[in-house]
Design goal:
By secondary structure, the chain is of the alpha+beta class. The protein has 3 helices and 5 strands. It has helices spanning about 5-20, 30-40, 40-50, and strands at about 20-25, 60-65, 75-80, 85-95, 100-110. A 5-stranded mixed β-sheet has the order 1-5-4-3-2. A hairpin with a 2-residue loop joins strand 4 (about 85-95) and strand 5 (about 100-110). Helix 1 packs across helix 3 (about 40-50). The two termini are about 25 Å apart. The relative contact order is 0.21.
Length: about 110
């Protein structure tokens, strides 16, 4: 169940979108395939999330990063429909140089693990 931390996370993410204070964790095949299926660019995805992501898309979180290969951070998972696809979007926030930097870990069709 979402709480005020979810609303704050989304608001901070949207601010980061405006300030280009985000990056994609890596080029993952399922992410690339999803972009190709949609015919979208990274900017299209950012614009879509900025304009549409809301607390109603909350799935789970906050969770701490548990993979020792990645920097620590807090992860929220949202499921949002894009066209006819249900998108699973894993958004991670972490602290870098006194600013909140967002890492978009994964985005793909729901169930495409």
């Amino acid at each position: 169940m979402p709480d005020c931390s979810t609303n704050l996370f989304i608001a901070d993410f949207k601010k980061a979108c405006l300030n280009n204070n985000y990056y994609f964790a890596q080029n993952r095949k399922k992410n690339i395939n999803f972009f190709l299926k949609l015919g979208w660019t990274v900017e299209d995805m950012i614009n879509f999330l900025y304009n549409n992501l809301s607390v109603e898309h909350y799935y789970k979180g906050p969770e701490l990063e548990n993979n020792p290969n990645y920097n620590s951070g807090i992860i929220f998972v949202f499921i949002i429909t894009i066209e006819e696809f249900s998108l699973s979007s894993y958004l991670k926030i972490k602290k870098e140089d006194d600013s909140n930097k967002f890492v978009i870990i994964s985005f793909h069709e729901e169930g495409d693990n």
